[in-house]
Amino acid sequence: MIKLTATSILLVDSDTEFSRLTTNILVSNGYDVSTVFSGEKAIEYVLSLRKKYDLIIIDINLCTGINAIECAKIILNEKDIPIIFSTSLVNSNYLELIENVISYGFIIKDNPYTALINAIKVALKLHNHKLKIEEKHFHHQKIKDETDRILKHDLITPLNSIIGFSEYLLCSEDFDEPVKESLSLIKDSGLYMLRQIRNTLCMHKLEEQSYSLSFTTLSLEEIIVKVLKSFSNKYNNPMEIAISIGFNNSSDTIPELYFYTDKDLIYRLLSNLLKNAIEASKKSEKVFLNIVYDAELTFHITNSGCIPESIRPYLFEKYVPSSKKNGNGLGMYSAKLISDTLGAEIGFHCDDQANTTTMYVNTHLKNI
After folding, report:
1. Going from the N-terminus, what domains does the chain have, and what CATH number goes with each?
2. Whether the Cβ atoms of residue 105 and residue 60 lie closer than 8 Å to each other
3. Which helix (H) or strand (E) is 144 found in, with range?
4. What 3-state DSSP class applies to 251?
């Protein structure tokens, strides 16, 4: 028969009589109890590794030596052990002190011992739940790291070879037009897949807040030209939806404006929003990109069709698909991540009468 190990508790209290009575109660309820009378001794017991403790009960009014709060902080800095504070008096100052320490509550000494037993059970249950969450997070992170490794090394390297070889063959005069069209299709497919992989890797970094911003000076024209170029191939714009450009609500030429921002993220943000607008459009419809500059740079992207009302409150959450067919629910989520990282504001307006949706991004960028 397997003998279960009793839950081990360290009781830290300078009141010897209370310690004796409490120890007897806890032992009678099946707990393994060690008792010390000072914070210094508690730290010594816990950090000496002579015994593994499952829970610590500390009197907040320790009479000698280090105080209870400092004792708890030193222990928690080294060990992940649930701590319950005990006190004879309910004092608002004590409660404020406890709030600065990761604890699992406090108990009043004059309360029945059933309250103490219940507090211990709740603290242990909460701590076990915390450990399970941390374990799940660890495995989730491990899977994400492995996925990133596969994307970076196992997919990007051969993709670059496919793209490069396609470009090399396209320069040859030995192939007729049908073959060259097939080679162009292979090249565009590779470029599309490469962008998707890089977008996924970027999104992972944004989620983990580990993305390293790299600021540079960009002209507005440079941003727009690069974005529009990416929608010139059939993979990004299979229905060849026309993109109409305007500045300050007119068809004026884009002025010479310069901004200091992260080149990659501002490009991804604008491309992402245009891609979503294009995918939500029908053949022969137009997508309108209106660039507004009035002290700060704002983009407005309008397409036909309205986002369903049931989706609108959750549009920027992960895996919430819009009205598009075959949407994966990551487009708007990714756009929100990028906006937050850049310190921009993103939102949308649905005109139900005109049956249009306008996404807007106030970048807060100023001409330099």
Report:
1. 8-111 (3.40.50.2300), 137-211 (1.20.58), 213-368 (3.30.565.10)
2. no
3. helix 113-149
4. strand
